[in-house]
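Please study the protein below:
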Amino acid sequence: MKPKLEAINYEISCLHQEVTGSSIAVTFHFPDKSSKRILIDCGIFQEYDYEEYNYSFPSQFCPENFDYVFLTHTHIDHCGRLPLLVKQGYYNYIYCTNQAKDLLKPALFDCAKILESEAKNISKKRRTIIEPLYDVDDIKKTLNKVRAMSYNEVYDLDDNLSVTFLGNGHLMGAAMVLVQVKYPFCETINLLFTGDYNVDNLFQEVPGIPKWVKNLKLIVIQEATYGDSTTKDIRYDFDDILLNLIEDNKVILSPVIACERAEQVLLKIKRLQDNNLISKKIPIYLSGTLACEYFKIYCSKSIIDFIPENLTLVTSKKININSQILENKNINFIDEIPDEILAKKETKIILTTSGMADKGKAPYYLSKLANRDDVTVLFTCYVPSNTLGYTLKNIKRGSEYTFNIFGEKIKTKINCEICSCNEFSAHAKSDKLIDFLKLFPNIVGVFINHGNLKTKELYAQEISDKIDMSFIDILDRSIFYSLSDYEILKVANSKYSSIQELKKYTKNQLRDRRLKVKRSKPRFKNNRLRRSRIPRFNYF
């Protein structure tokens, strides 16, 4: 099918293959031969199989060629490579909501801290210089480019493009991004990027979608992380688990995600206290500098009081918190939980970063407590196979495990109990995702992204069974779509369709270099820069 003479043509492609590393690029071509390029999110890859994707951007994602970058939310798999984008040449603004701007700073600085630490450790091990992905200066330059926007306000960025940030319950400050592109005598293109999506949020009121947006003719780019499950599949068992552990006089160590998951767990504990189900005398600790930084932000922004009694913040960084919800609260601040308190066999609740137990203070506390049968480790998020959390959940009780604590190897018997709950996910399930699509009577089609291939295929079939639309296609880094107005003209393979092909390409390059060495002198020397491993954060 040939494109119309007067139409806005555009290409949509993305960098992510499954869940992490979210980045979606759109290039718009206008009848006067001019073009505009936008990027939605720029996240770090956290899956082990895709780590190699972190180090550079493909040619179609050349940083200096983008006109606008929009951020849906501040989870590191959506924002973690923004400093690399700036480092490699992006010079325009980055747009997000006001709340997201507040949360972005601690997220990026913590990421840089981890990158630098890992680079130093690997440099020492390999006896060579390992460069981190980016540094603090790159983050400062990035933050200077961030411009905050309010929900449900239309911002005209130029004569052709406007953007509106819509409410999203996935995380405080999260937004869906509506991009509208126009040109004289052409049909306006409306693209709605959901980002990671949830209906409600405990800590902020989620603005409703305006009627004028619902009535638009549009294409939706929608996540499908849990597109193979429904709301009925969630087991709300955290309260029961916690009450049973307290009844058994357990010491509870719970790895939590620093941003919002810690606040969710604290709110759960507070409600149990308010209902006189657990004693307000039980000590509660929130440990980790990043977790306490987010705690400070949530204290000032949250619409509800989530702070339980007898809470102690464990952080080496001084934090001044001014908030009405702190009035009459018995909150203490300490640098570290003393060993004599950790050693006491009395009920206490320790919340510590990170959620997967790989980073933060979690390995330290595990090395101290995992050998005790009066300790239970309670995971509150999904732990993939390449994490410490997964290892502990699957290790045989009584086995030994060696923890790496600040470069020191500590061997410990795993005698503690390990358990988990799944009720805290901030992603909408398939039934809620379908309900969302039904809000738009003039929807033309959906591009499904953010999820493993099987899940995306199952969700695509569910949409097909329940909603009538022109197309339902799956978006991942293996292909890109060329469109004119609201019609798909072409589906083509991208340069690297998989990590296997990328490795094959690199292998072929190396073979060609060896042939070149064989044929000529002087001897070829490969000075390719080695890079540090990428930190694995939780994306739920």
